[in-house]
Amino acid sequence: MTPPTPSAAAPLEVTDETVDKSPTPATPKGSESRSPGRLAWKRFKRDRTGVISACIVIFFFVIALAAPLIAKLYGKNPYTTYASERPELLDPFAYPAGPNGGMSSEFWFGIEPQLGRDVFTFLLYGIRTSLGIALAATLLTTVVGVVIGITAGYLGGKTDYFVGRVIDILLSFPSTLFFIAFMPVVYGLFVAADENIPTSLRAVSLILVLAVFGWASLARLLRGQVLGLREREFVEAAKVTGASPWRIVFKELLPNLWTPILIQSTLMLPAFVTAEAGLAFLGVGIIDPTPDWGVMIQRGAQFYTEDITFMLFPGISMVIFVLAFNLLGDSVRDALDPKSKR
User: Fold this and answer.
1) Is the pLDDT of residue 144 over 90?
2) Terminus-to-terminus CA distance in the chain, angstroms?
3) pLDDT surpassing 80 at residue 23
4) Is 286 helix (H, G, I), strand (E, B) or coil?
5) What are residue 197's phi and psi, to 5 degrees?
6) Do residues 222 and 145 lie in contact, with contact meaning Cβ atoms separated by under 8 Å?
7) pLDDT of residue 121
8) Using an 8 Å Cβ cutoff, are 157 and 114 in contact?
9) Angle CA 133–135–138, to nearest 5
10) Residue 128: which of 271, 295, 262 has the closest Cα?
11) Cα–Cα distance measured from residue 49 to residue 327, given in angstroms and rounded to the nearest whole number
12) From CA 150, how far away is CA 160, in angstroms rounded?
């Protein structure tokens, strides 16, 4: 007898064996999409030189911000002439009586020749002054350069031609010589010749003059970038949809310009630090008794043959900061460059 044939319409019984329980293949690590910012941050963290330079730069800015607190805890200030209160601190030739510029547990970095001011607190406030002026000048320069560069590149025509000629004129000036000649003119606009120039006016004038002659290089770079971007498809598409020029600039152009803006700003700040110190050294910027890197180097140059300590501290600290910030700028540029192998 033949066994009964099962019906074709009979439902297939689903068992555990018929279900595929094999795990779904995992996405390989690192294959998930990442934003350009995350990729740049990953490349920067692999750059040991950049990380060390960033730590040094942050240390200097923290010192500058905390200078009043550190001086209060230290128990001294940069303006008191301690030698007038204690003549034994200086020898008969008005140099520090102690070794190494008078360095001791009381005066960590020694005292200044002739006046006897504390070098440690003078250096703290000098870093604060120099970095404050350089940072303000960098921010103002960046804003002016971005606005003028993007405007000239986007509008083109006569506006671009006029801005281009202004940039050419500014870049042709010998800036250092012009600073020396122009700073007294700026002071004379606000203060009479027989009056003392306030320190705040000197600082504001320095920031304005540095910005006036600093924006041209950034504006030229951004103008060239915008001239290429404004012909791209995404900008044309935004124009077809009726987007306003402001929306096109802020939504389409500016996001593609952050990399050159950031790189130029990081290279601009150390240049302004050295420029400000140079003007103070020449006597047309911040002057004594206001603490400043350039003021300290100027004062130290008068005594370095007999007491090099006073000039040594501001000189070394400024070199370390400028070098670290330049290396940081190079590392930021490499991190933001997608073709970089570092």
Assistant:
1) yes
2) 82
3) no
4) coil
5) -85, 120
6) yes
7) 93
8) no
9) 110
10) 295
11) 7
12) 10
